[in-house]
Amino acid sequence: MTENITADYNLMVISDKPDSPWSTTVNEALMSLGKLYFFAERDALTQIGKQSYDLIIIASGDIDSDMGVLVKQLHASRPETPIVVTTNSPTWRRAREAFLAGATDYVRRTLDKEKILLFYKKILQ
Amino acid sequence: MADITILLADNDRDFLTNGREFLEANGYRTLEATSPQEAKNFLKTSRVHLAILDMRMENDSDEKDKSGLNLAKTTARSVPKLILTRFPAYQDVVEALKQDPHALPPAVDFLDKRKSLDDLLASVEQVLTKYVLINWDLIIHWETVLSFSRLIDLIDPELDKARLADRTAEFEDLWRTLFRQYAQITMVDLLAHGPGYVVLSVFAYDNDGLETQHIVSCGQKELIRAEMANYQTAVSGQSATAEIVSDNVAETVHFAANAYRLVHGKLEELVNLKMFFHRHSPHETMDAIERLYKESLGIWYETGRYDNREQTVRAFYQGWLKRNPPNPSESELQQCIEALCAKTLSAGLGRIEYSAHFLTFHLPTNGFAAKYPNPIACLHDKRAVGQDFVQWGRTHGRINLETALLDENGSAYLLDFTQAGQAPLLHDFVSLETAVKLHLPTTPHLHNRYTIEQSLSTLSDLNENLDGDAFPNPPGHIINAVIRIRQLAAELTGCEYNAYLSGLFFHAVKHLFTYQPDLYYTRQALGAYIHALVTTAVICQKLGGEPLKQDNLPNQAYEGLWIDKINQDVWVKGVQIDLTAQDFQILVYLYDHAGELCQRETIIKQGLGDENQEYDRFQEESRLNSAMSRLRQKIEPNSQNPQYLITVRGRGYKLMPQIQT
User: Fold this and answer.
1) Model confidence over A15-73: pLDDT tens digits?
2) Is A3's pLDDT higher than 50?
3) Distance (Å) from the C-alpha of residue B103 to the closest C-alpha of chain A?
4) B255-262 and B645-648 as β-strands: parallel, antiparallel, unpaired?
5) Which long-range contacts (CB under 8 A, 24 or more apart) does A103-108 make?
6) Which of B89, B98, B105 faces A92 most closely, judged by CB atoms?
7) Is A92's CB within 8 Å of B99's CB?
8) Which CA distances in Å does B607 have to B368, B534, B579, B652?
9) CA distance B10 to B259
10) Complex ipTM, two decimals?
11) CB A95 to CB B109 under 8 A?
12) B134–chain A nearest CA distance, Å
């Protein structure tokens, strides 16, 4: 039985490569959860001050600046919003840095839409 | 001064030694564990502020060994932990540091063991600053003779004495965390306590001396967590009427605490219901009781009430008794009651004759004796007590003389939400009635306690009145309070009389369960147990299935007054009454002329048997008056308001053996 998902979440995705295969996949996978807002890293902090989001996804590796600093700033601005750091090349130091900065999770990226949907749906619920 | 204890757990003894020496040189106490089991024991039993766990605590060569991480995930989650490893992997970091919405993550940092001890120290200090929020400079002042160790004793009387020092220190950490933003707290009074917890009044002062007043529930962690959940469900949802608000919470491995702040009012002006009762008039007390139920609790009863057709009153209370030990077996209870009866006699409080089937209450004055069924039979007889279905809803669960504080105007502040939840709505009312009857009377004697119960047993409806003012105080004041509680129960819960009596029965049984034959009790405490026993017996008779009848007794013996002339026995409502020979003679004369006006002179001559003697009017009238007074004391439910032996003013007396309804 196909599950009809009706949700109205606001999801922020921070990536300087909105047209990358990963960004496209995430957009398609999560559109049933609500609205996805793609921002470049330089705009993210401004945008986070304007409205609240139910989830923030950071495409680490697709941004230039220090991921840990960005996570820390986002967390300070919206401590109640879960932040997930995604990466193609996970390392234990980067994982530690993300968590100490306030990230909720640190995951290796995938292009499997079903896995993406299940993963983020669980966080939102 | 900070008193931090760090647990170091590693199967590498060299690392342990170096680590211990380094941390102790930096002012920390340490505990060392060389295995996961040893570390687990320390975390569960000792006072530990931070744990440093090696990832591979069993076998450094086994890449699958995650014993340290597994320990962090499963034990003492309220203690922050660092994971150390020479073989860091990102998946392990995620597993260790991933956030948990309900608790600290399994670990709060993850370090490469190959780094220097200085790096470890830096992490330790960061973690302690962020997660161990103990105000070491908080001044704790006691205005009471209590202490933390005494409070631990109340919370956990079975605690192994070897652990007391550690547990007391942990308890103090809890308080230093709970009030970390203050400069001083003053522990004022113990307001209430129960198994596993205490409730205290605490005044807190900031650095400028500004005072805030708190009521703090603290004790065993799971119990206090449940109390906070109950509070959030029952009270904070009605924020417009909430008199106290949750101010802060704190937890350690074994304990938790909830600090509530008064919205209005001052703690020093509040008294519990017991003190209010003694300081205020009966009218003010009844007003306060009404406000307690209608204003403080009324909104609880209005929300989500329903007819529960799946669980009888009896089933609820049997579960309630099981959840609230002690729970003696039937034979243990028999022994307790037997011992209580013996103690009552030796204390000069009255005589209670105990047998397997009956309790007979002999009163120290005038030879009155009343026989009742042994209530243990009712407790185990499914047909007997509590087969009713009633309305359920949200109840406080522990309304008694301590769990409501009242101000001068009678406004109530509820304490102690440990037992709040879904229950028969009558639960809060029978709880208070039991507390009022058992613990407010200042006289412990059987006669006084029996008078209260016997008077109340003449009622047949929750709305029925009994004029407490007709009784001397006490128990008149107590009877008035009980009547008011019952009327409020009828109004606010709609419960039937028999269901209410069932609730009273089980509350009295619960009190009896706490009697310990090997202990010496004060007379006041004994009086409460005596009253509980009387309550169970009287209610058992009133409700107990088929009436427990003597062989060959006619129905009149149970319906009113009946005289067995052959055996010269007098029965009133199934209770055998002992009379002197003279009183019996008078009563028989009146009984033979039941319903007729019997003139005083005739009674004297016929009843006192002085027909042929010279009639000294003054002396004989005096004798008759005394005899009538004695008879009323023995046969009437309320001698001030006689139902059997009626005076016809200026003319004589009339006996009505069967009360007209």
Assistant:
1) 988 889 999 999 999 999 999 999 988 889 889 888 889 999 999 887 777 889 999 99
2) no
3) 13
4) unpaired
5) A103/A58, A103/A71, A103/A75, A104/B98, A104/B99, A105/B94, A105/B98, A105/B99, A106/B90, A106/B93, A106/B94, A106/B98, A107/B94
6) B89
7) no
8) 21, 34, 14, 13
9) 38
10) 0.91
11) no
12) 21
- A-facing residues of B in 14-73 (CB < 8 A) are none
Give the 3-state secondary structure of residue B411. Answer: coil
Please give, rounded to a whole number of angstroms, the shortest distance from the CA of A31 to a CA of chain B. 25
Alpha-carbon span B493 to B480, nearest angstrom = 20
- Asked if B375 contacts B565 with a C-beta cutoff of 8 angstroms, the reply is no
The torsion angle over the Cα atoms of residues B99, B101, B106 and B111, rounded to 10 degrees, is 30
pLDDT, tens digit, for every residue of B163-188?
999 999 999 999 999 999 999 999 99
Q: What is the pLDDT of residues B268-327, one digit of tens each?
A: 899 999 999 989 988 899 999 999 999 889 888 988 899 999 999 999 999 999 988 888
- Looking at the predicted structure, is the pLDDT value of residue B547 above 50? no
Note whether B317 and B386 are within 8 A (CB). Answer: yes
**Cα distance between the two ends of chain A:** 21
Phi (first) and psi of residue B649, to 5 degrees: -55, 130
Closest listed residue to residue B410, CA positions, set B288, B304, B517, B307: B288
- Is A106 within 8 Å of B109 when comparing Cβ atoms? no
pTM of the predicted model as reported, rounded to 2 decimal places: 0.78
pLDDT for A4 equals: 43
Amino acid at residue number B124: V
CA–CA dist B224, B556 (Å, integer): 55
Q: Report phi then psi at A95, rounded to 5.
A: -60, -50
Structure tokens at B43: 């975390």
- Those of residues 103-162 in B touching chain A at CB distance below 8 A are 105, 109-110
- Hey, is the C-beta of A94 within 8 angstroms of any chain B C-beta? yes
What type of residue is B73?
A: K
Longest dimension (CA), chain B: 120
